[in-house]
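INFO batch 0412 | record 1 of 1 | parsing
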Amino acid sequence: MSRDDARALACITAHGRTGIAFQALGRGLAHWFDAPGNRSGDLRGGSHGDSRGLVAYFDTGSAWIAAGEPIASREDSIPVAEAFVKAARAQGRRVAFFATEGVLAASPRLRRVSIGEQPVWDPSRWASDLRQHRSMREQLRRARAKGVLVREIEAGGSSLRAPIETLIERWRASRSMPVMRFLVDLAPFEHSAERRLFVAERHGTVQGMLSLSPVPARGGWLFEHLLRDPGAPNGTAELLVDCAMRALDADGVRWVTLGLAPLSGRVNAWLDLARRVSRPFFNFAGLSSFKRKLRPHAWEPMYMAFPREQHAAMAMLEALRAFAGGSVVWFGVRTVLRGPPPLLRALAWLLVPWTLLLALVPTHPWFPSRGVQAAWVVFDGLLLWALFRQQRLRSDWLAARSAVAIATAVSVDAVLTLTQAVWWNAMHMNGALETVAVVIACAGPAIAAPVLWGAVRRLQHLAGVRVPQR
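INFO prediction complete | emitting tokens
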């Protein structure tokens, strides 16, 4: 552990009361200590004893996005936050505190917006609540009936490290979006001495994982990473939570959280719109619904706080840059180039009217002959059938092979369409509208091809890293 991390850990151990306090040790975060002579952005300092607190943050290049509230005593939290704002401004940076639990509301220099809620439980009530929760008991029964077993293992130096890393890679390959950074980075083996780790196994293969990080000032735990293999039996995630709750209850723990359910509960109109629009790529409502299914004992509101003179939209944009690890636009491009399932479905449905259009337009001036026109209609019809069939395949291996065939066909489509446009259409177009139509015809497969090859890479990775069940 580096000297900086050791100093941060000492601060977390003394004052870490929020659910995400331990995530201050996450990769990619810088540490700002509010120490004497250290109020202008210098990240160096002496021992923990000479500072009032710590702020872990991500530097987007134009803003410092803090990971939650300052890690400090309650009475020092606001002074430390205000000193951090001053230090950021000295470096020409805006500021936002993302995922705060409400302490900063008392600062006259800061305002806040709701960004969601976090569910909390008292593990001592879990077993009695479960007796009144029939659907949850059924999920646990299903997982056990399929042979899923859960046990706690040592987070560091475990013989299961390689299978768990395989699980993480398979889980990532099944996601629509690429890896995010700020507060959601998956690193369950870092700082393992402070963590707890539960794994779900079936016939000797890892099917799921639950990584816990401590909340020292509350004597509680954050269920930080809950992963289920895409092929794991139903109820695997619930079984992991059940076993962890029972283990924590046996240890006398009385406070746990599953962390922020983003955009859950009452949020402003713009965030509500974002929740609806982004659903195909990230199901905020589904995540909240899963956590509600576990019947938390309370929901605590979560906020983003920022200086009053800053606009809320700009603060949120900077927070998105932190999650994206840089440019939001480039993150969007990388998402598209992964060939996410919602985009593949959209491409398939867009091909329906396009194929009908090819069949109905007059042959001249669009095609050299009726035979060529018929060939294009048949080609696109077969491609349409392949796209819809591919979405129904359950085998990772078959889905990957099918994706290769589709991506190859669309690449050939792009070449042939451009060839026809240069050889035939360029000499027979009359007017701007016809030219635009030809450009669109060329652009469609040229854009779709890299998206489909991105899906190939994702699906091949999903199929290739899978450990066969015995």
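INFO post-check: DSSP finds 15 helices and 13 strands in the chain.
INFO record closed
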